[in-house]
Design goal:
Layout lengths: L4 H24 L3 H20 L10 H24 L2 H10 L1 H12 L6 H21 L4 H26 L4 H23 L1 H10 L1 H21 L5 H8 L2 H11 L7 H19 L1
């Protein structure tokens, strides 16, 4: 079946919206790490269900699966820390905004995907937007900025490795399924080892919200990873970062975070850069 790039682009935009929403849920939660564990438990169940219906990814994908799971564990840890240190409307754009630059560079080095002039222009715009956002927060949130940039590095790791992984298997969904099993199983095991009683109590009190957020997270990530099997990984990563615009709206309208003209301008610069990358 031939799938048009326009349709793929629309699906990745939907995954961007889903990503912004479930991240807002994590930020709004009093227990961000436990909320993440609940969300990933949905991914674990979905992955297990898919795995029973699909062939094994094969030995060639094993290294990619382990590497992708490692970077996802790092992502979960740094994401929860960055949301403790900074507003959602600041942490999210920094973490997601640095990703296109890093993914484009990683794709050039490891996936043989070259950069075009428009992509370089987009990277410059994203960098300027991030600089404007970071300068605003330097006096109050240096540690949060480091956590957010680290989150972006982790995103780059699992995105690049995931793109290589789905291209190494006959059925990309089998790779997605097993990555969900590994990443979800790891974070749930961490909760069982460190905070089992509180984890069970949190799960009972937040079952519906966590289940819905988990479906958004799993569906959005699966779409993005699947899209990298048919589109350049830098284009997918850049398109998905439209979530920065969604996050900016959510932070002001739903989370009642402070409205800042500089924050809005920075987010728009990042968005323009991402748009340039997406259409390059």
């Amino acid at each position: 079946m031939v799938i048009s790039e326009t349709f793929l682009f629309a699906l990745v935009l939907l995954s961007a919206l889903a990503h912004a929403v479930w991240n807002a849920v994590v930020k709004h939660s009093e227990e961000g790490f436990l909320q993440l564990a609940m969300i990933r438990s949905v991914g674990l169940l979905v992955g297990a269900a898919l795995a029973t219906q699909l062939p094994l990814p094969g030995k060639a994908a094993l290294g990619f699966l382990l590497g992708g799971a490692f970077f996802q564990y790092l992502y979960f840890f740094l994401l929860s820390r960055s949301y403790k240190a900074l507003d959602y409307g600041t942490a999210y754009p920094i973490a997601r905004g640095v990703t296109p630059l890093m993914v484009a560079t990683a794709a050039l080095l490891f996936l043989d995907e070259s950069l075009q002039p428009l992509q370089l222009t987009g990277i410059l715009l994203v960098t300027c937007g991030i600089f404007a956002l970071v300068m605003k927060e330097l006096k109050v949130g240096r540690r949060g900025i480091l956590y957010s940039v680290g989150t972006g590095i982790a995103i780059t790791g699992y995105t690049t490795i995931g793109a290589a992984g789905v291209r190494s298997v006959a059925n990309p969904l089998s790779y997605v399924a097993w990555l969900e099993i590994l990443s979800g199983g790891g974070i749930i095991l961490a909760v069982f080892v460190t905070r089992p009683l509180k984890g069970f109590a949190f799960a009972r009190a937040n079952f519906l919200r966590s289940s819905l957020s988990g479906m958004l997270a799993t569906g959005g990530f699966g779409i993005a990873l699947w899209a990298t099997s048919m589109m350049p990984v830098a284009a997918v990563a850049a398109t998905r970062e439209v979530s920065i615009l969604f996050a900016s709206i959510i932070s002001v309208v739903l989370l009642n975070e402070r409205f800042s003209r500089q924050r809005v301008v920075a987010a728009l610069i990042i968005f323009c850069g991402i748009g340039t990358l997406a259409f390059a």
